[in-house]
Amino acid sequence: MTATAAITQDLLTIPRKLPQGGLVNLVGLTRDQMRDAFLAAGTPEKQIKMRVGQVWQWVYYWGIRDFEQMTNLARDYRQLLAQHFVIELPRVVTRQVSADGTRKYLVRIAGGHEVEVVYIPETDRGTLCISSQVGCTLTCSFCHTGTQKLVRNLTAGEIVGQVMLARDDLDEWPVKGQPRPETRLISNVVLMGMGEPLYNFDNVRDAMRVVMDDEGIALGRRRITLSTSGVVPEIARTATEIGCLLAVSFHATTDEVRDQLVPINKKWNIATLLDALRAYPGLSNSERITFEYVMLDGVNDTKEDAHRLVELLRGIPAKVNLIPFNEWPGAPYKRSSGNRIHAFADIIHNAGYASPIRTPRGEDIMAACGQLKSATEKQRKSAQKAGV
Ligand code: SAH
Ligand code: SF4
User: Fold this and answer.
1) Which CATH superfamily is domain 91-383 in?
2) Does 140 participate in catalysis according to the annotation?
3) What is the pLDDT of residue 147?
4) Are 260 and 217 contacting, i.e. CB atoms less than 8 angstroms apart?
5) Cα(first)–Cα(last) distance of the chain, in Å?
6) CA pair distance 383, 386, nearest whole angstrom
7) Is 234 an active-site residue?
8) What pLDDT, on the 0 to 100 scale, is given for residue 14?
């Protein structure tokens, strides 16, 4: 492919209006934005509601990308749409499948940047882990993404596009004339890939509203979990503006240790974070907050830590997700031993909180939590070496 062809391809994935009369990508527009875009393209006001409804269903219910296939629209109107709009997803550059069935997609977005998306099949569910930023501004010391500088926020289209491209790969769009299968391959979405979703709030919110919309992908709000490192001022909006579940990267029981692991703690410390969580709108036993806790050998994994954690959680409907540390090349920590992790889990469990230990998935393809980006970097380095 020539350089020009590569650039053109990338430009097509930009989901907002392009300069010089370029086409607008419909993917990621909210219903209101789609309405405005259709009106601006010349759709008569009295048809607008119907048109948005029809196109929405084609794009998000049926997964159609070509206006010509939107058979309930008059030919003239299909042509009008094609003159102004495209339906484009970020491009999948590589797709790896782990021995345990986990799939990892390396996805190219406008500007040539790359993010990773991971699909984790389990017996009772299938979870898609999506990214919200290229890199991350935060520098959590145990996270590989944190070693990479932020390049940019993803657009809403690029976030929705991750869900759509995974549905493409899993062949999960409904088939005409057949009822929608009751069990979904992608039953859950977690914002636990690259980036801090609360530092890209508006785009994450718009994207999740598209994914939740009943006439499209229709994923229930409780099937979506947003994970934050603790951006306190934005936490409440997660409930009021998205309504999804919340997970917090807690990882330590003293400010001294949390300052080291999750440096945003220096801005909003444990007490401030817990106040925000206690005040989380809609918090209840059926919608508990997940406390993520990465188990680092000799750093945060003692019995005293477990007891302190229980004290800190008092009064908050919570569950604790223990994550065995996933090592990456050059990482300054080691994973806690299985005995330590189990002893820790028992203390939390005996205090009345669910404390599942997350099974690392997709380790052979570096798809586990906190390992994202490494494969990309490795590939780039070997490409550089080979002079590509
Ligand atoms: N930025 C958000 C979401 C992405 S990280 C956040 O920090 O919450 C998703 C989860 O993986 C977080 O709980 C994060 O702390 C954890 N994580 C990061 N690196 C890890 C690693 N190497 N091993 C295990 N978990 C890790
Ligand atoms: Fe960013 Fe989350 Fe990694 Fe921290 S753990 S560096 S907030 S992606």
Assistant:
1) Aldolase class I (3.20.20.70)
2) no
3) 85
4) no
5) 13
6) 5
7) no
8) 40
Which residue ranges of the chain lie beneath pLDDT 50?
Answer: 1-20, 374-375, 385, 387-388
Contact between residue 192 and residue 290 where contact means Cβ atoms under 8 Å apart: no
DSSP result, 72-133: TS-HHHHHHHHHHEE---PEEEEEEE-TTS-EEEEEEEGGGEEEEEEEEE-SS-EEEE--SE
Residues 339, 342: Cα–Cα separation, whole Å: 5
State the CATH class of domain 3-86: mainly alpha
Instruction: Give the pLDDT score at 383.
Output: 53
The phi, psi pair for 165, rounded to 5°, reads -70, -30
Which pLDDT score is estimated for 15? 42
Q: Identify the pLDDT of residue 180.
A: 76
Nearest ligand 2 atom to the CA of 133 is 8
CB 224 within 8 Å of CB 211: yes
Query: Is there an atom of ligand 1 within 6 Å of 246 CB?
Result: no
Cβ atoms of 96 and 103 within 8 Å: the answer is: yes
358/322 Cα distance (integer angstroms): 6
142 Cβ inside 6 Å of ligand 1: yes
Secondary structure of residue 191 in the 3-state scheme: strand
Residue 133: CB within 6 Å of ligand 2? no
Domain residue extents for the chain? 3-86, 91-383
* Residue 61 token pair: 């219910």
CB of 261 sitting under 6 A from ligand 1: no
Report pTM: 0.91
Q: How many CB atoms lie within 10 A of CB 2?
A: 7
CA of 71 from ligand 1 middle (Å) equals 44
